[in-house]
Amino acid sequence: METPVISCSPDVMGGTHVFSGTRVPVQTLLDYLEAGESIDDFLEGFPSVSRDQVIAFLEQAKDRLVADVS
Known about the structure:
By secondary structure, the protein is mainly alpha-helical. 50% of the residues lie in helices and 6% in strands. It is built from 3 helices and 2 strands, in the order ββααα. The chain has helices spanning 26-34, 39-45, 51-69, and strands at 6-7, 18-19. The protein has a two-stranded antiparallel ribbon with strand order 1-2. The radius of gyration is 12 Å and the shape is globular. The chain starts with 5 loop residues before the first strand and ends with a helix.
């Protein structure tokens, strides 16, 4: 079984959606991208998150958005 990209637990960051195995909220990535920062900038600031996790999250978000508008 594949490890989930994001997790949510009341014991971790009060239930905020975070990248699995970290305490880094996925909202932080979105904030970086919205501000014009790159994925590399985000990864430099949050080394506990892997590039694979970021790409998988963005792909899942894209797939859900496309499914919702279809």
